[in-house]
Amino acid sequence: MSRANKKQVVKVLQPLDVAILKGLYEYRALSTEQIMRRYELSRWYTYKKLRILRNSRLISTHPISGYLVNQKRQGSYHRISEIGISCLREQGVPVERRADQLRVNIRHLPFLLSTNDVMIDLETYGWEMKDSRSVKEKFELNRGANVQGMLKSPRGTEYLFYTFLHGVGMKNLMKVSKELMDVSNPNYILFAKSAASYMKIVEHLSTNVSVIVQCQSLKVFPYTFAKYYLRHFEDESNVMKFLEDYEIYDLSFKTDFKDTRKKKYDGLERIVRHEGEEKYLINLLDTDLVKIYNIRQYRKEMYELDGRKVLVITTPMTRHTHEQLLGEIRHIDYLEIDSGDLIDYLSAI
What we know:
- It is a single chain.
- By secondary structure, this protein is of the alpha/beta class.
- The chain has three domains: 1-103, Winged helix-like DNA-binding domain superfamily/Winged helix DNA-binding domain (Arc Repressor Mutant, subunit A, Orthogonal Bundle), CATH 1.10.10; 105-234, Trna Endonuclease, Chain: A, domain 1, CATH 3.40.1350; 235-348.
- 41% of the residues lie in helices and 18% in strands.
- The protein has helices at 15-27, 32-38, 43-55, 82-90, 109-122, 132-138, 170-183, 195-205, 209-212, 223-232, 236-243, 289-297, 300-306, 319-326, 339-348, and strands at 30-31, 59-63, 76-80, 128-131, 149-152, 158-164, 187-192, 217-222, 249-250, 271-274, 277-283, 309-314, 332-336.
- The chain has a five-stranded mixed β-sheet.
- Helix 14 links the parallel strand 12 and strand 13.
- Helix 1 packs across helix 4 (82-90) and helix 2 packs across helix 3 (43-55).
- The longest helix is centred in the N-terminal third of the chain and has 14 residues, at 109-122.
């Protein structure tokens, strides 16, 4: 065989080779684009490195096309092979699963790749992820459960999460609602990949009080916006720093709650000064349905006794939805934050 036709193979595993194999083991599947982003490689070098790993039978490569209705080819995704797992073991990397245990059902592939896309953006900001199999084992769920995995924030809060693609059927929503009831985890994040799926999720779950009351948080995000928001704003103290530019100042640390007029209501713990008034602040940039439920419990008679309005932080894109969910409550003020300004701010940090 001529030198030109000879396939390049791995002679000695390099640190980058080990890192890519470890990533494929942890994430089960990564697209070419995701590998390029995660390891900060040029497109040319990514293709070269993957070709060498494939020639060495350390990974396998598969087309993404055909897994969604009317979807054209969307590039390739890659999986670690049994030989690749053996190499990781030889490198001292703890591995427990075989390659066939990491195989992805083609129906679940779009959800997995979407999930991995979020994590690649968030892991550099201190987020960690456990995959769906680990979560199903922990909560004793059957293999067909919809939960995509668990995200752990830099503050240590653990969120079970779900990803919804462009079409969301009522049967699927009912199944997810049942899972939310059965698992009884305190915190959830739901990612919606289209405006239509976002609205359908919000409309359905906002009326399911039995689910909402057992959660500490039930956040519904447009998929792309979530990847920016969760970098820093999962920690609401960072939201407060941002809102100082809008002349909103936190008074919670010095408010005397011994005064009966200053009674705390569920979910209304943060008091701010805005436009010369004391108000309860609710950040709905995350469309947390638990927060919306708590606002609705702060009824007119409570407001008349307490005297503080609720200041809701929203965006021009979500304000109408939030107003619909909150109904005809008159003791609410809305502050719109432009989504573009928000993303610019979060991108610059």
